[in-house]
Amino acid sequence: MPGLVFALETHPGRKRPKNEDAVGYALTPWGGAFVVADGMGGHRTGEVAARLAVDTVLAHLQGTDPSPKVLLEALERANEAIYLEAQRPENRGMGTTATCLLLDLPYALIAHVGDSRAYLLRRGELALLTEDHSWVAERVRQGLLSPEEAKTHRWRNVITNALGSFPQARVDLLGLKAEPGDAFLLCTDGLSGVLEDRTLLEVLKNFPPEEAARRLVALANEWGGPDNVSALVVRLPEELPKGARPYALPLEAAGGQPVRLKLGEEPEELPTQVLEPEARRPRVAWRDALLILLWVVVVAYILLGYFRP
C-alpha cells in the first residue's frame, strides 16, 4: 500500500532473562495485518505461545478477503493451535495475549484478547481502543478500583482472558473508518504499564513510526523495564482508497468512531460470539438473582420451622 509506513520493536526488558513477546506483520493489497502477543506459562512455553499466535493469525489473514469474520477465524485458529499445544504436560499453563490490527482501507478492524493494547492517534489526540482483559481492569470498570489503585495493585498482572486457555476463544472485535494520517500503536503491557498516555502521545505525534517505536521501547527500559516490551506503530497514508465492504454500514454510521461489532452485524454468521463487558454482565446478574432466591428459601424454611406448632 503506497504511503503506508510502519515499524516494530521488541526487547526483553531489564528484568526478564528472555523475551516472551512476539510481533509480526503481513502486507496485503488492501493494507496489511499487524499483531503483537505477550506469552505466558514460563520461559519456553510463553515464547512458543506468542510466536504461534502471531504466525497462525498472519498465515490465515494472507490470501483471503478481509472481513470481521475472517479476522475472528484467525484468532480462533490461533487459540486452537495453542490450546492443543498446552495439553502436553510440559506446556501446562501456556497462553498468550494477542492484539491484531487488520487494515482493509479505508477501514480498520481490531481483534483483541488479553491486556496487550491498541491505541489510535487522530488529529493530535490519543485514544485507547481496546479494553484490558485483566482482574484490575474489570474492577476499574465496575467502579471498585480507581485507575491509580489498579496501577499498583498486587494483582495488576493477572489476566482473565488469553488465547489457549479455553477450547473456544473469547475475542473482542471492533472496527472504525480510518482517516488520512491516522496512526495506530499496538503494544504489550511492558510498554503501556510503564509509560503514561501523555508520553505515548508526545512520541507518536513528534516522530515517524520507526523512531517512535524505538524511542517508546527505550523509554520503557529507561524507566525500569520490568517486563518484555514491544511496540508496533502504523501510520496511514495521507490519501486513502475509496470503497465499501458488506460490514461498512455500522462503521460509516459511527462517523469514524470505533464500533464494537456484534453477532448479527455481519452478513454471514460469525464463528464466535463477541463477548463484551455488557454482554457478560447478565451472567453475573442471573447468578446473583439465584443466590438471593436461595437465601430467601432458606430463611423461609427456618421461619416455617420456628412458627410451626
Automatic annotation (TrEMBL):
- Key word Signal present: no
Q: Which GO terms describe its molecular function?
A: protein serine/threonine phosphatase activity
PROSITE patterns tied to this protein? PPM_2
- The membrane spanning regions, by residue number, are 289-307
Keyword list (alphabetical) reads: Membrane, Transmembrane, Transmembrane helix
Q: Which SUPFAM superfamilies match?
A: PP2C-like
Keyword Transmembrane recorded: yes
The record's annotation in Gene3D superfamilies points to: PPM-type phosphatase domain
- InterPro entries assigned to the protein according to its UniProt record, in alphabetical order: PP2C, PPM-type-like_dom_sf, PPM-type_phosphatase-like_dom
The PPM-type phosphatase domain is annotated at 5-236
- Entries under PANTHER family matching the protein: PROTEIN PHOSPHATASE
Q: What is this protein called?
A: Serine/threonine-protein phosphatase
Specify the species: Thermus thermamylovorans
